[in-house]
Design a protein that fits this description.
36% helix; 5-stranded antiparallel beta sheet; 13 helices; 476 residues
């Protein structure tokens, strides 16, 4: 069965889905659009509101499909958009061999079911007539122009809400500083045992004050204290409380800060930058290169969201570009398991746009094309260059929690029972997280390792390793 506009109309669950699909038929939304050499399978990657794109795969005639978006409509707007693009703009599709995730879908596919079972039925106004592409196009074409007076009122409303939030945040910072002073007056010897209950009320107040970033730091503090040895807990408490005090002070004086650091402090308090705003910011740091997916990390946060981190290594040789990047997405824990968009070891030829920062690290994948093979980068050997770089980043961003140094010419050694250390030829060494002992045992005894780690100033978490025997990636 050949793909036609009528076929797409028949697949659509309702008129709203067709209208939503039309809004996606723009080149900027699709860094990847491709078809198999036999033209039987289509796939693409659509940039949504998160850091990583939704992956869409469909049979060329629409008889089967899958998308990683959370929509409960089948097929979703992304599948319909791919099919629509195939009919109207077939030249946008690159003919190439399917990637592994497309091959996996093809292997699991059985038959040609067309609509997924249990598809929601149209309701309300959509229930009376079948979906129509012409109607969707007409709906878009007849959108009334914005009323200048209404736009001015809306802008005034946004400014008023913004001013109210600024005032609420400043009041929340006052409470935070009083609370920290109370904790210091009580002493920090037993702070770890009372941290959770002591922080709970203040954390709620900070959320109410629209300072969710600081509230999240408070929520995580008690669990972080019990991840370190008992004799280190008081020191860690001082560090974390000091960081929050520093953030509060910097926020009060943000007009005196350099622009990148001002963005850092606002994000640390709780302000966010929308994806569209970041991509449209011509001043945002950008790096176009071939990237290697080093590791995927998942963590459940106290706010019942799962934080998904995809760590990338820049294989280019431009020293002015960031050497690593992290793509971050959040999904509800209640939604069950969530897959990562890229597999460790995968290569990405694309542009990463970084959030403005004194130490750029987190970014969005703005564009992507078929990746070439990539060679793992080789930074200066030894620990000293990487640790000096970390020191410089920490000086630029004093509340920096962790940084991903690239190491070369190092070796993994045991450092007592159940402990590991990274050493270099100069005799320098840094500790490795004890929880990684079993994972990293196969790398013991291998010389001249190249590693990507996460370093917090005390202990390293190894994310990936390039060895003479092949590459190792952390997953978890």
């Amino acid at each position: 069965m050949s793909l036609t506009r009528e076929r797409i109309e028949g697949l659509a669950p309702d008129q709203a889905s067709l209208a939503a699909a039309l809004k996606l038929v723009k080149p900027a939304n699709w860094p990847v659009l491709a078809a198999s050499s036999d033209a039987e399978v289509l796939w693409g990657e659509c940039q949504g509101s998160g850091a990583t794109p939704y992956r869409v795969v469909t049979a060329a005639e629409g008889s089967g499909y899958k998308c990683t978006c959370p929509s409960r409509k089948f097929p979703c707007k992304h599948v319909l958009a791919v099919l629509w693009l195939r009919v109207d703009k077939p030249e946008r599709f690159e003919t190439t061999s399917p990637p592994q995730w497309v091959d996996d879908w093809s292997a699991r596919r059985r038959g040609s079911s067309g609509r997924a079972p249990g598809k929601p039925k149209p309701e309300g106004d959509d229930a009376g007539a079948p979906p129509s592409l012409d109607a969707a196009l007409a709906e878009t074409a007849t959108i009334a122009p914005a009323d200048p007076k209404a736009a001015a009122r809306a802008e005034a409303q946004r400014q008023r809400i913004r001013a109210e939030r600024e005032a609420a945040i400043l009041a929340g910072l006052d409470e935070l500083e009083r609370w920290i002073a109370d904790q210091l007056n009580q002493g920090l010897a037993d702070f770890a045992t009372r941290a959770a209950s002591a922080a709970r009320t203040l954390s709620t107040r900070l959320v109410d004050a629209k300072a969710g970033g600081l509230a999240a730091r408070l929520d995580q503090l008690s669990s972080e204290l019990f991840r370190v040895r008992e004799d280190r807990r008081a020191d860690l408490a001082i560090e974390q409380l000091g960081a929050m005090t520093l953030i509060a002070s910097a926020y009060r004086h943000q007009d005196r800060l350099p622009a990148p650091l001002r963005e850092d402090v606002r994000r640390a308090v709780g302000w966010s930058l929308r994806r569209e705003e970041l991509l449209a910011d011509a001043a945002a740091p950008r790096a176009s290169s071939v990237w290697i997916v080093a590791a995927n990390l998942s963590e459940v946060q106290p706010d019942k969201l799962r934080r998904l981190e995809t760590w990338l290594v820049n294989t280019g040789d431009d020293p002015s570009q960031p050497r690593a990047a992290v793509l971050v997405d959040f999904v509800p824990v209640s939604g069950g398991g969530a897959g990562f968009p890229f597999a460790p070891g995968e290569t990405i030829d694309g542009e990463v746009v970084f959030y403005p920062s004194a130490a750029p690290l987190r970014g969005l994948l703005a564009s992507r094309k078929t990746a070439a093979t990539a060679t793992w980068p080789r930074p200066l050997p030894g620990l000293a260059p990487a640790l000096q770089d970390y020191t410089a980043r920490l000086a630029a961003l004093p509340w920096l929690d962790r940084w991903p140094p690239l190491l070369a010419g190092v070796t993994l050694h045991t450092a007592g029972k159940g402990a590991l250390a990274i050493t270099d030829k100069a005799g320098d060494a840094i500790a490795v997280e004890r929880s990684q002992f079993d994972q990293l045992t196969p790398l013991l005894g291998l010389d001249d390792l190249s590693l990507l780690c996460l370093w917090d100033g005390r202990v390293a978490q190894v994310l990936a390793a390039e060895t003479a025997l092949g590459r190792w990636h952390h997953e978890g």
